Fold these 2 entries.
Entry 1:
Amino acid sequence: MHRCDPGIAQLISDDRKYTYTKPTFQEVASILRASTALSFEKFKPWARQYLENMWSPNLDSVTTTCIPLATETIILARRCSIPSVLKRALYELVRMKGFGQIHVIHDDNDDSKSAGTLSATDHLILTKAREKLGSRWIEIALSPPRVLRPAASVPTPRPLCDNAHCTFASPENTHRIYRKLVHDSGIFASYIWDTICGVQALLDAPWTDEGCCVGCVGKIKGEWQRQKERIWRDLDVWFGLSGTV
């Protein structure tokens, strides 16, 4: 017979507590582990919702602000079958130095000897995903987007923009401004592992301030937004989550 986890025992004795007080991650984790071990489903949907609010799978929720406890969340989600939080938590780690394992806090009270440490499988998943993200970032950000490049098959390419006052009307000015806003600014070097936020940085760069017309800016932003959404979809495959969420 399983011994009741202190966290769930306390919650069972007073299930009104968390109606008024937001629980800590550790309390939610304790409840989930006990619920899973005891097949006690009453509080599992509530705990799952807590984690999903913390680790939203929506693309718009990804910002440069780091969310703590990603490693612990992944371990908990694997153990308690909550795949909906894995994508965001894995992305948090894939963009961190050492996959966030340098500053991991080990939970000595957890009954797992590897609590707080990524599995070898997840470490391999992150390694391969980081390679994919890095390659995609170089493809997207190294040079001006395709919509600004003249077709190679045209003997005498037309200007990239019909507006003579637009920076993108000149290939030389296009590369000069692109180098200034993407490379000299540090965007390219800073987001090699964080491609989602890197593309957002491209979208937020002051293109119109550098003389780029609204039409051209709309074209490059449209392409970058499509690339950003594509990367987020591809992460399901790169993280091995296809068919699990």
Note: Residues 135-234 form one domain.
Entry 2:
Amino acid sequence: MRAVNGVRVFFTLICVGILGLAFIIMIDQISDPMLPELPFINVNSVMAALVVLVLVNLASFQTINGEKKKYLSDGKLLCSSCQGIVKEEQYQAHLTEELERSKWTSELKALTESDPVLRSVVQEWVLSNEGGEPGQPVVIDLRKAINLDKAGNYEGAAKIFEEHKLWSSAGKVREKNRVQMVKHVTVDMNQLIEQIGNKGLAVPYKCHNCGASITIDKNSSATGLKFCSYCGTAYNIEEMSKIVQEALAI
């Protein structure tokens, strides 16, 4: 604060000197119009001095008030010795924060070294966040997503990954979910084909791409109903299973 006050006083004296000199010259010229004008004392220099005077004082007062607020206790400014104590406490708090950060860095390193899946996810987080280090709450979230993935809750895991902008991990998890659904539908189709055979039915189905017709009967297989044999387009297995279910009146 002393340095700020010193700068303020220095510029204030210069500006006041310019203004005072301008005032004296103005009085002298009023009393004696024949006096020569000084080139550096004019309207522009006076206005500049006023602006600098106002800005310097305003900035210094704001800086001083900001510093004072750091050392207020119950609305009263602390004494010099108390301010020293506060500064020391702030310094110690900073050291503690740095120590905690260093400790967490070591813990995170140990976690990622022992868990390759977490290491991969953390690396993606670092890339997505332009460097830096994920904090403990973030890592807790990421481990939760990994565990949800292991438990088969793919959508829950994907949402957590998305919250942390881990688009690649979210996409991989959702792909697992899609594959699982396809497998489930394939199993269902095998069961439906078996029922068609038992009832002696033949269910027609058209390819949406080329319009070619196929017949789903007891000789069909779920693996053979994945792609159109004419154009190679993948069939919509879910839609196909619904058509078969309607034919079976399920």
Note: The first helix runs from residue 2 to 31.
